[in-house]
Amino acid sequence: MFTGIITRVGRIERLEPLGAGADYGLRLHVAAGPDYLDDVALGDSIAINGACMTVTALDRTAGTFAVDVSAESLARTAGLDRPGVVNLEKAMRATDRLGGHMVSGHVDGVGTVTRLAAVGESWNLCVLAPPSLAKYMAYKGSITVNGVSLTINQVTDRSDGCEISINLIPHTLQHTTLGTLAVGSPVNLEVDMIARYVERMLSLGAVPPVA
């Protein structure tokens, strides 16, 4: 479990194919900085751009770690198939402050940035979510974008999906990779966990129980 509060901006430095062919995934070698990995052990979970991954190799002195990403995960996420900066968050402890919201690290879909523009001291980020996620988007609800816990300020339903508007304060831009986004950038989205369970319960409640 995670909170959506990014604790470090790292970098995917190297990609290593796990086999030949489209059915094989990649091993990502990620630089995080020596101090970041002091309390990390093999098998621990770290969210990379919002996708929960398992640490399979670790070099605390160099400040690097590796994760294996399956072909399925690569097909359903964005930003894990190439070198570049990424948002990192270690799994939360039971005693941690829940500064964002409950995040599972399971990406529900990939959205597309439609706007990133300055508005006063802040920035307005708009993302087009796929139609399958539209029912989970709500005014003042929570959304995770590339692992960052954010609040939805506006929801606009469209024929090609659901566009959400989010306000980014300068601190968020300085301490995450969201400032590197541009119109057309793909982003990993995770909807609010509670909304997902409510939708499931309501859908089952509408169907008569099987005798």
Provide a brief overview of the structure.
It contains three helices and twelve strands, in the order E-E-E-E-E-H-E-E-E-E-E-E-H-E-H. It has helices at residues 71-75, 170-175, 193-205; strands spanning 8-17, 26-31, 45-48, 51-59, 64-69, 84-90, 109-119, 122-129, 142-145, 148-158, 161-168, 186-191.
Q: Which descriptors apply to this entry?
A:
6-stranded antiparallel beta barrel, 211 residues, Elongation Factor Tu (Ef-tu), domain 3, 6-stranded antiparallel barrel, globular, 11% helix, 3 helices, 2 domains, single chain, mainly beta, 12 strands
Q: Could you explain how this protein is built, in words?
A:
It is globular and about 45 Å long. By secondary structure, it is mostly beta strands. The protein has two domains: 8-90, Elongation Factor Tu (Ef-tu), domain 3 (Beta Barrel); 109-201, Elongation Factor Tu (Ef-tu), domain 3, CATH 2.40.30.20. The mean pLDDT is 94. The longest helix has 13 residues, at 193-205. It has three helices and twelve strands. The strands form two sheets. Strands 1-2-5-4-3-6 form a six-stranded antiparallel barrel.
Tell me the layout of helices and strands.
Elements: E1 8-17, E2 26-31, E3 45-48, E4 51-59, E5 64-69, H1 71-75, E6 84-90, E7 109-119, E8 122-129, E9 142-145, E10 148-158, E11 161-168, H2 170-175, E12 186-191, H3 193-205
Instruction: Tell me the span between the first and last alpha carbons.
Output: 37 Å
SSE class: mainly beta
pLDDT < 50 stretches: none
**What is the alpha-carbon Rg in Å?**
18 Å
Q: Which fold name corresponds to the CATH topology of the largest domain?
A: Elongation Factor Tu (Ef-tu), domain 3
CATH architecture of the largest domain: Beta Barrel
Q: How many H/I helical runs? A: 3
CATH class of the largest domain: Mainly Beta
Strand percent estimate: 35-45%
Strands, count: 12
Helix content: 10-25%
- Bulk shape: globular
Elements, N to C (H/E)? EEEEEHEEEEEEHEH
Strand line-up across the major sheet = 1-2-5-4-3-6
- Give the overall average pLDDT: 94
Q: Give the biggest beta sheet.
A: 6 strands, antiparallel, barrel
| Tally of separate domains | 2
